[in-house]
């Protein structure tokens, strides 16, 4: 495989995937296609932008004619599809944008690949990146005990049961990808990963938002009672899993990606406060008062927990970082890269944030 199209490569996870592939595979030509929405930022790729095997194209995946032209012009052999609208709160406010990009955009890309590959599937692959949120929500059957908080996990066989417009749109896109495999014989792969954290994440998501707010002494809006559970994976480990699966995954198959690392939101918030205060040289407890309980998110899924045993057993992948180490590195990165954060949060960001959540 030589020419690989990575969509959404200017976003959070996509930028880590692009960086990994550009550096690790000089023999591949990596084409990063991104519409540069509010979530896409070429500053995420400064370190590799001049690499000889890297090309950036600003384009919208919903533009079917353009996708066909790009498949042809760059003689694309493999697609790794990450472009999406990705934030649940935004999907609650504006579901149409999610249906457009995540469903119609994915369909447009699938059809363009099908049209260009024209039934010659040898050496071709359409790899779709999805989320564990398509499976719905799990119960907390051991709320007072340490993780795991329940005996049930999401496996590849778990029935889809999405609750938010975001997860509904991702579920629909997953179904389309599998339909292209089953109907036309297109070589596809789908992976469903748990919550990611790490450098370059847009600061509307819990971890970067809270690190930034602690640094600035701003309130930390915890939804509901902070008892919802998420399963966290360091983003570089997700990128490593994508590399492994892209090269060795069984065509037509699905793999769950996660690190068996469940945390209640409030416990994560406490770890973040401790870590940021320590790294800034503040006395322990300095920022505890910033915790502010706010109205819960509508339809807030209680617990996500991924069982990634299949990926471990079949392809030998496992996370490389313990959570404590990952959080330490992540906090360090955001504190050391305030310029990146200022750039991202300048201009429209503050306006958007206020429109979305009101004054906080
Ligand atoms: P992100 O919001 O940080 O990045 C999305 C990227 O897609 C941005 O660069 C944006 O400009 C681009 N994009 C959006 N609409 C586009 C369009 N119409 N055409 C072309 N480009 C467009 O998202 P992320 O967190 O990096 O997530 C990437 C993928 O991984 C998504 O498909 C998401 O569903 C999935 N995922 C995310 C997580 C997570 O925790 N962040 C977990 C599992 C799966
Ligand atoms: P988020 O980072 O938005 O990811 P997702 O909704 O895809 O899991 O949120 C992670 C968890 O943190 C989720 O349970 C919602 C909660 N949360 C807050 O309590 N406050 C916030 O300001 C945000 C953004 C999220």
Question: Describe it for me?
Answer:
The protein has 360 residues and is an alpha/beta fold. It has helices at residues 12-24, 64-73, 88-93, 95-117, 165-184, 206-216, 235-248, 265-280, 309-315, 323-336, 338-345, 348-357; strands spanning 3-7, 29-34, 54-58, 78-81, 125-131, 188-193, 195-197, 220-223, 229-234, 254-257, 262-264, 291-294. The strands form three sheets. A seven-stranded parallel sheet has the order 3-2-1-4-5-6-10, with helices on both faces. It has a three-stranded mixed sheet with strand order 7-9-11. Helix 4 (95-117) packs parallel to helix 5 (165-184) and helix 6 crosses helix 8 (265-280). The model has no long low-confidence stretch (mean pLDDT 96). The protein binds nicotinamide-adenine-dinucleotide and thymidine-5'-diphosphate.
**Order of SSEs:** EHEEHEHHEHEEHEEHEEHEHHHH
Question: What structural class do helix, strand and pairing data support?
Answer: alpha/beta
First-to-last CA distance: 49 Å
Number of strands: 12
Please tag this protein with its features:
12 strands, binds nicotinamide-adenine-dinucleotide, 360 residues, 16% strand, seven-stranded parallel beta sheet, 42% helix, alpha/beta, three-stranded mixed beta sheet, binds thymidine-5'-diphosphate, Rossmann fold, 12 helices
Topology at a glance:
Blueprint: E1 3-7, H1 12-24, E2 29-34, E3 54-58, H2 64-73, E4 78-81, H3 88-93, H4 95-117, E5 125-131, H5 165-184, E6 188-193, E7 195-197, H6 206-216, E8 220-223, E9 229-234, H7 235-248, E10 254-257, E11 262-264, H8 265-280, E12 291-294, H9 309-315, H10 323-336, H11 338-345, H12 348-357
Parallel strand pairs: 1-2, 1-4, 2-3, 4-5, 5-6, 6-10, 7-9, 8-12
Antiparallel strand pairs: 9-11
Helix pairs in contact: 1-7, 2-4, 4-5, 6-8, 8-10
Bound molecules: nicotinamide-adenine-dinucleotide and thymidine-5'-diphosphate (TYD).
């Amino acid at each position: 495989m030589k020419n690989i199209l990575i969509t959404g490569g200017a976003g959070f996870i996509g930028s880590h995937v692009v960086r990994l592939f550009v550096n690790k595979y000089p023999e591949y030509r990596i084409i990063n296609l991104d519409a540069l929405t509010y979530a896409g930022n070429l500053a995420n790729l400064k370190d590799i932008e001049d690499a000889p095997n890297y090309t950036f194209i600003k384009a919208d995946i919903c533009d079917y004619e353009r996708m066909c032209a790009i498949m042809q012009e760059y003689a694309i052999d493999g697609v790794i599809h990450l472009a999406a609208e990705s934030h649940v709160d935004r999907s609650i406010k504006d579901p149409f944008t999610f249906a457009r990009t995540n469903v119609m955009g994915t369909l447009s890309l699938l059809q363009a690949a099908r049209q260009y590959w024209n039934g010659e599937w040898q050496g071709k692959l359409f790899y779709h990146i999805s989320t564990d949120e398509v499976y719905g929500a799990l119960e907390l059957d051991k709320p007072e005990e340490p993780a795991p908080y329940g005996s049930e996990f999401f496996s590849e066989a778990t029935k889809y049961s999405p609750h938010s417009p975001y997860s509904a749109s991702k579920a629909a896109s997953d179904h389309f990808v599998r339909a292209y495999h089953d109907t036309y014989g297109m070589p596809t792969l789908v992976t469903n990963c748990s919550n990611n954290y790490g450098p370059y994440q847009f600061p509307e998501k819990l971890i970067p938002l809270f690190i930034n707010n602690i640094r600035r002494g701003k309130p930390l809006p915890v939804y509901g009672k902070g008892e919802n559970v998420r399963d966290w994976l360091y983003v570089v480990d997700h990128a490593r899993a994508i590399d492994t699966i892209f090269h060795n995954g069984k065509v037509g198959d699905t793999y769950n990606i996660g690190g068996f690392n469940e945390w209640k939101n409030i416990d994560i918030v406490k770890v973040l406060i401790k870590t940021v205060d320590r790294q800034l040289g503040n006395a322990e407890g300095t920022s505890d008062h910033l915790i502010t309980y706010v109205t819960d998110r509508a339809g807030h899924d209680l617990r996500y927990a991924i069982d990634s045993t299949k990926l471990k057993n079949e392809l030998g992948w496992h996370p490389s970082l313990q959570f404590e180490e990952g959080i330490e590195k992540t906090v360090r990165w955001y504190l050391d890269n305030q310029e990146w954060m200022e750039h991202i949060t300048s201009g429209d960001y503050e306006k958007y944030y206020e429109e979305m959540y009101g004054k906080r």
